[in-house]
Amino acid sequence: METASNFLNIKDVSTAFKINGQFYDAISHINLQVHHDEILAIVGESGCGKSTLATTIMGLHDPAETKISGEIDFEGTNLLNLDDDGYNDFRGAKIGMIFQDPLSALNPLKRIEDQISEVMDYHTSLSKEEKHERVLQLLDEVGIVNPKRTAHQFPHELSGGMRQRVIIAIAIACKPDLIIADEPTTALDVTIQAQILDVLRDIQKENHAGIILITHDLGVVAETADRVAVMYAGQIVEEGTAEQVFNTPEHPYTRSLLRSMPQRDNENDDLYVIKGNVPSLQKMPSTGDRFAPRIPWVPASAHEENPSMHEVAPGHEVRCTCYKEFSFPDEKGSVTV
Amino acid sequence: MSLIEIKDLKVHYPIRTGFWNRITDSVRAVDGITFNIEAGETYGLVGESGSGKSTTGKSVVGLEKVTSGSIMYKGVDITKKANRTKLDYNQDVQMIFQDSLSSLNPRKRIEDIIAEPLRNFEHLSKDDEKLRVLQLLDIVGLDADALYKYPHQFSGGQRQRIGVARAVATNPKLIIADEPVSALDLSVQAQVLNFMKKIQREFGISYLFISHDLGVVRHMCNNIAIMNRGRLVEIGTREDIYNHPLHIYTKRLLAAIPETNVNQRAAHRASRLAVEKIYQEQQSKYYDENGEAFPLIQVSPTHAVALPENIAKQLASQEGEVQA
User: CA-nearest residue of chain A to B50?
Assistant: First the structure.
């Protein structure tokens, strides 16, 4: 999918961490594009590498302890070739990041106004008054009722939802083209979560930004995302539009995840449990389908030796050939999830 | 008779201010709630953070000093410590915590962790105790080699299952599960919920299931109470709460659950915003002049809502419910 609106192009990126002197891949050979005006959700369980992907894009890894290969093309610049100073021109200015825990992401000793204008000190040449105006405007944009009052408060005086709004305000202060939101609503109540997701969506529309939304919550994905990439054990196993992934999921992992959710119609049944565990980094097999050990009833011949992505519909790709033969043990023939 | 009858339970925390550190006010964490838990059922207690649901759970186990009200178990009020000891209450009621890592002692082996309640209450011989621990590990699906490991050597789901094993060690009648799966991944969550249901079927345990996740609560609970600002705003069966919610707070919670049906996305968002608008505009209709919930009014044999009587009846008849 090479289109003009493709401004972030992740090509064959692998990130390896050093454990006891040896490097192990946390994410391997990731290919992803992010377009303007879209929310791309990356879903997966803990340890699948979704946050590693985010921190790799942001360049937050210690080069001595990690080995990153591949290319991250951001509007014509390969981010992986940048040194620290070069990266700082992007971080905060063109790429904004929203973290999971808003309390630890804010400085407890600084007023909200100073924290938001800090980004602008580095990346813009606005005057003090202009910055003040912009802070109030930003706070208003993220839905804070009384921006003047909030600007003067400290983080501990705000509720969790308000804090997360402030974090979003900081992330969008310089109108970035790309916003990476790493589990932005996990620490919040459902009602607040819904509000924060609304804010994210509105901001994306207004700024024509691309958002990478990292989450483990399939409900959040179904409500917000335009496109979805499902990750398992450091690889993308399925990618497509939200409609494609939720209406016609193909990869066994995606289908298993959807099936293990408590739903309206399985109230009295046992939930589906995926057999086995995610392999640890050191034990990751170098060849073969990484999900194969968790669906042992599928014959080995169904898997590819080196699973690659296969297009099942325009824009909808699935890793490995096993999806063609896969069905749950208690089902016969075709499957509806 | 119900297993546990909670009547007008109040837990207030004093606020001390001024030079003499006198009590000037109190935080009413739990402010007069009444409900019953039947034997063998899963009772869901739902609310947002700060609504007092965990405080309620802690008072039922006896970890929280109750300000007033009673918790009746076998006809005795167990808010008094002497009564708890007399009835072996602490053996019959156990707890599963949200954070499995911090609720297991990192310096103890799994054998000692699971055996601790047994040592407190049952005084078995060494061999019998080991046999029992192995049985418990088997129930929650862990191997015998887990005995000599430490908590950090397990994954989150396994640790939560160890927590479940410890809770069922004394054959309890009631387990308080405070957000037992909210720290877990989807597939692991499924595992733990299945175990909890299996144990319930085998041993007839009741659960007080405290959670903010209405999807999980719908899966687990027969009866549900919705808590808001220390009070109950709605009580009912699963059917009552999910299909005929009456209080605006319940409706708002339900509307905020993300749907996995991508085709309905726009419609779902519109209905959520509509509910939110009513919630913001009609506070005075659903809450009294102090912003607190009204007393509960019974609208059907199973369903009660915290609204003035005329409004409750009117809403209930709109929903087509049988009048009590």
Answer: A189
| Distance from chain centroid for Cα A261 | 20
pLDDT at B15: 87
Task: List, in sequence order, every residue forming a beta bridge with B227; answer none if it has no partner.
Answer: B232
B152 contacts chain A (CB < 8 A): no
- B261 near A CB under 8 A: yes
pLDDT of res. A337 = 40
Residue A76 CB neighbours (<10 A): 7
Within this chain, do residues B50 and B138 fall inside the same structural domain, yes or no?
yes
Is B195 within a domain? yes
| Interchain contact, B187 vs A258, CB within 8 Å | no
Given a contact cutoff of 8 angstroms between Cβ atoms, the answer to whether A291 and A253 are in contact is yes
pLDDT at residue B324 greater than cutoff 50: no
Q: In this complex, which of B197, B218, B260 lies closest to A222 when CB atoms are compared?
A: B260
Structure tokens at A149: 């009052």
pLDDT digits (tens, 9 = 90+) for B215-231: 899 999 999 999 998 99
All residues of chain A having their beta carbon less than 8 Å from the beta carbon of residue B49 are 160, 189
- Same structural domain, B175 and B313: no
pLDDT in tens, B106-115: 999 999 999 9
Q: Is A273 in CB contact (< 8 Å) with chain B? A: yes
Q: Within 10 Å of residue B192's Cβ, how many Cβ atoms?
A: 25
Rounded average pLDDT over B241-253: 92
